[in-house]
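User: Last request for today: this protein with coenzyme A, please.
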Amino acid sequence: MEKKAIFIVGASEHAKVIIDIIEKESVYEVVGLIDSFKNKGEEVLGYKVVGKEEDLPELLKKHEGASVLIAIGDNWVRHLVMEKLMNIVPHIKFASTIHPSAQIAKHVKIGKGVVIMAGAIINSESVIEDFVIVNTKASIDHDGLLKSFSSVAPGVTLGGNVTVGNYAAVSIGATVKHNISIGNHAVIGAGAVLLKNCDDNAMMYGVPAKEIRKRETGDKYL
Ligand SMILES: CC(C)(COP(=O)(O)OP(=O)(O)OC[C@H]1O[C@@H](n2cnc3c(N)ncnc32)[C@H](O)[C@@H]1OP(=O)(O)O)[C@@H](O)C(=O)NCCC(=O)NCCS
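Assistant: Here's the final one, the structure of the complex with coenzyme A:
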């Protein structure tokens, strides 16, 4: 099958992982990287930066029908870039990519702009909304709901029926008990064991996890 053209927006380390997934998935052919902070011609894993976000309309004329994938790990920044791209190219097509080693169970729904990395497990009837990142070896048990622009870091374990709010991040190695709800813009810290619901804009960590402080929308956590 002929591969479809794709541009990757963001030429950072996160992009390296995404390039590998795209190559292994063999659905898309990377035709260029877009990065407003790098010079044209700079390379990541053999792929060239071909322009800035503002250059996308011209580039999409050359590669008609090409999709775009945003390779930005920070949930809030990924959202801001998505909005910028929608303004520049209103009919933009956002792609998702899933590593072939990920295990996706029956009746799982996966939105657009999603990245699912190597070794991830997503169990039955879970919903992965738009622009979510399911990082390496993370596991989401049955009926999970990862709302738009949320992320689970490498090695995260979510029990069944866990909800992760919009823009919320579950950090590396954290474990979340079944039936727990994590609010919008919340951050669960590295290695935490979350046994209680987490409010919107709260940061919780520790074993068992406690609320450490509130955070402002867009505060850095990576
Ligand atoms: C939750 C998090 C953002 C907190 O960061 P922070 O607010 O900058 O915290 P600091 O690094 O300033 O640490 C403040 C204190 O809290 C402690 N602390 C921070 N995170 C902690 C955690 N997850 N569990 C236990 N203690 C933690 C620190 O050891 C430090 O203690 P000290 O004052 O006694 O030295 C960070 O721990 C985290 O999990 N980041 C995400 C990492 C991740 O997932 N990376 C992979 C992405 S692919």
